[in-house]
From TrEMBL:
InterPro entries: AA_ABC_transptr_permease_3TM (IPR010065), ArtM/GltK/GlnP/TcyL/YhdX-like (IPR043429), MetI-like (IPR000515), MetI-like_sf (IPR035906). The chain crosses the membrane at residues 20-40, 52-80, 196-216. Its main location: membrane. This is Cysteine ABC transporter permease. Belongs to the binding-protein-dependent transport system permease family. It is a multi-pass membrane protein. Residues 17-217 form the ABC transmembrane type-1 domain. The keyword Transcription does not apply. It comes from Limosilactobacillus caviae. It is found in: Cell membrane. Keywords: Amino-acid transport, Cell membrane, Membrane, Transmembrane, Transmembrane helix, Transport. SUPFAM superfamilies: MetI-like (SSF161098). Pfam families: BPD_transp_1.
């Protein structure tokens, strides 16, 4: 058993640092950008043609929160190649596995994180907007300098939890041939006929990764709290 662990663990860690962690970080980065744009679009009080954008944003959030992540991965990687449009997409949309993973995880994260950001922005008292307007600040300046820093304090814990969950969800990328940690554990288990040992080992590696991220989350929250408290003095 120990010989299997000694030879398998380096392979799992290599896959984790090469695919699992980069996939999670890149997807979360783009997901937060999507989430911020989506949240601000849904919170906007613009009327007229802008309502179409609000409807699209609401539909996007509903769609990705209402369907399984695994199904979304399959649609993007296996389904889009069959989206053939004569003269425009004669061969469909064929994506590399890593690219398909980033697109899917980013969109999925964006849908969930947009609700977190929307709730955090809504939690800031309306008087903050009025106070900023009273001293001549534009709505963009109020949002950037007053509202978002306060909303960040509220949104940081759930967003951090979303990132930790995303790290674990990357195991689904094995289904589209990305050789992240779970895929490597499956490959090794198929060779040594020790699935219980290998899946337990990869579970422990995920546990170590998420534990480290949890400690980093707590450290980051303390930094943000100190910064906000300093600004309020």
């Amino acid at each position: 058993m120990w010989e299997i662990i000694k030879t398998s663990l380096p392979q799992l860690l290599a896959a984790g640092f090469k695919y699992t962690i980069p996939l999670a970080i890149i997807s979360f980065f783009f997901g937060i950008i999507i989430a911020l744009v989506t949240a601000l679009t849904r919170l906007s009080r613009q009327r007229g043609p802008f309502m179409i954008l609000k409807w699209i944003a609401s539909f996007y959030v509903w769609l990705f929160r209402s369907t399984p992540l695994l199904v979304q991965l399959f649609i993007v990687f296996f389904g889009l190649p069959y989206l053939r449009i004569k003269g425009i997409l004669p061969h469909g949309i064929k994506l590399e596995p890593f690219t398909a993973g980033i697109i899917t995880f980013s969109l999925n994260t964006g849908a969930y994180a947009s609700e977190t950001i929307r709730a955090a922005i809504s939690s800031v008292p309306r008087g903050q907007w009025e106070a900023g307007a009273a001293i001549g600040m534009t709505r963009l300046q109020i949002l950037w300098r007053i509202i978002l820093p306060q909303a960040l304090r509220v949104a940081l814990p759930p967003l951090s939890n979303s990132f930790i969950s995303l790290v674990k969800d990357t195991s689904l990328a094995a289904s589209i041939t990305i050789m992240e940690m779970f895929a490597v554990s499956q490959q090794i288990a198929a060779g040594n006929y020790q699935p219980l040992l290998m899946y337990t080992l990869v579970a422990m590696v995920y546990a170590v990764f998420t534990t480290v991220l949890s400690y980093l989350q707590g450290y980051l929250e303390r930094i943000v709290d100190r910064q906000v408290n300093a600004n309020n003095r």
